[in-house]
Amino acid sequence: MGSKKTAHREGFEALYRRLEETVARLEEGGLTLDESLALYEEGMKLAQRCQELLQQAELRITKLQEEFGPLREEPEPYPLGEEEEIPPE
Predict the structure, then answer these.
(1) CA 16 to CA 46: how far, in whole Å?
(2) Three-class DSSP category at 3
(3) Stated pTM of the model
(4) Residue ranges of the domains in the chain?
(5) Could you tell me which of 78, 60, 57, 76 has the C-alpha nearest to residue 11?
(6) Residue 43 and residue 49: Cα distance in Å, rounded?
(7) Residues contacting residue 4 through CB under 8 Å, at least 6 positions apart
(8) What is the pLDDT along the chain (89 residues), one digit of tens a residue?
(9) Which CATH class name applies to 4-68?
(10) Which has the closest alpha carbon to 46: 21, 72, 66, 71?
């Protein structure tokens, strides 16, 4: 079982993998009540940390969008009747 400090240094993908492994172990069964409770607690902490990282990423994306505007703007269409004609070759 990992420590809280380790969980705060790991990236989202590693934490999510650990969470999946924890859930799988719980679903397999065959654990004592104490083992199940310990795994459940670890899983809840991992899920909470994953949620925190997702919220931080969402906030960062929001700030970037505010700073740089939309990622892609559509070009302005030509006004009717003012299209450039392409000369024949």
Answers:
(1) 7
(2) coil
(3) 0.66
(4) 4-68
(5) 57
(6) 10
(7) 45
(8) 455 566 568 899 999 999 999 999 999 999 999 999 999 999 999 999 999 999 999 999 999 988 887 666 666 676 766 666 676 77
(9) mainly alpha
(10) 21
